[in-house]
Design brief:
It is found in: Membrane. This is Gamma secretase complex protein. The chain has 170 residues and is an all-alpha fold. 74% of the residues lie in helices and 0% in strands. The protein has seven helices and no strands. It starts with a helix and ends with a helix.
Length: 170
């Protein structure tokens, strides 16, 4: 599960950049060098077959921009990728038991917990259909109100269960 989470997070974060890289930059060696080190533009102009071509400037800007974007993405998302190599579930640091609510439903054979998690996830997803509905006026407002209501109800239910668990353990 941890490898699945890791690769899922990695492909979500870096998939578009890698697709752009392999699709348009990798076939041109000069652009690969420029992407790695954007300061190499003057040297690339000296050895390029058509250094004054108007097509070189936009290609160089594209490669340099992708290089800087990739560096920013690596710096920004590396901590989340490292966290995904942990126990297989990305936990909420302040309340570690909340992330395992669904799994505890299976271990305790609490079918109401399992049903609540599945119903609220589907309900929140289906409420977003109201955004693009041509027949319902203010569908966006109804969707937001419905999702906030589901969030409040879920929070109340989870914290009530946590309080009962805490009372059992005390």
């Amino acid at each position: 599960m941890t490898l699945t989470t890791f690769f899922g997070c990695a492909f979500t974060a870096y998939g578009p950049s890698l697709a752009i890289f392999f699709g348009s930059i990798a076939p041109n060696a000069q652009l690969v060098i420029l992407m790695v080190s954007s300061r190499a533009e003057s040297g690339l102009n000296m050895v390029a077959m058509h250094p004054k071509s108007r097509f070189n400037r936009s290609g160089y800007a594209f490669a340099a921009g992708l290089g800087f974007g990739l560096m920013f993405g690596i710096i920004s998302y590396i901590t989340q990728l490292v966290d995904s190599l942990g126990p297989g579930v990305i936990m909420c640091e302040s309340c570690k038991t909340v992330s395992l609510y669904f799994i505890s439903g299976f271990t305790n054979r609490s079918w109401l917990r399992i049903a609540w998690v599945v119903i609220t996830h589907y309900g929140a997803s289906y409420l977003t259909i109201l955004n693009s509905s041509p027949t319902i006026n203010y569908g966006c407002a109804y969707q937001i109100i419905g999702n906030v209501a589901l969030l409040i109800a879920s929070t109340i239910i989870v914290f009530a269960d946590m309080r009962q668990l805490h009372q059992k353990l005390s």
